[in-house]
Amino acid sequence: MIDLQHKVLDTIANPEQILEGQQNAQLAVSRMTDGKYIVVVYRELDVDGFIITAFLTRRMQYLNRRKQLWP
């Protein structure tokens, strides 16, 4: 994922959708060009936030079971 650092930050700044995660985390999702999706799990705090993890997947059916927070 180190090669995708720019895409990870772009996904948080401009996600296609945001899903509800566990323990107050959120999942920002963006489509990649090769049919995969990048998912960035992060948590927002009052003034700041932090990334917990990021991963690639093709299994959007699994993610779409989660509550959609945005849009």
Describe the protein in words.
- The chain is an alpha+beta fold and 71 residues long.
- It has one domain.
- It has two helices and five strands; from the N terminus they run H-E-E-E-E-H-E.
- The radius of gyration is 11 Å and the shape is globular.
- The model has no long low-confidence stretch (mean pLDDT 94).
What keywords describe this structure?
five-stranded antiparallel sheet; 5 strands; 18% helix; 42% strand; 71 residues; alpha+beta; globular
Overall geometric form = globular
Helix amount = 10-25%
Determine the strand fraction and express it as a percent band. 35-45%
Biggest sheet strand line-up: 4-3-2-1-5
End-to-end separation in angstroms reads: 26 Å
Count of separate structural domains: 1
The overall average pLDDT, rounded, is 94
Q: Report the order of strands and helices.
A: HEEEEHE
Number of strands: 5
Structural class: alpha+beta
- The value of Rg in angstroms is 11 Å
Low-confidence stretches: none
Largest sheet: 5 strands, antiparallel
Number of helices: 2
Summarize the structure.
By secondary structure, the protein is α+β, with helices and mostly antiparallel strands.
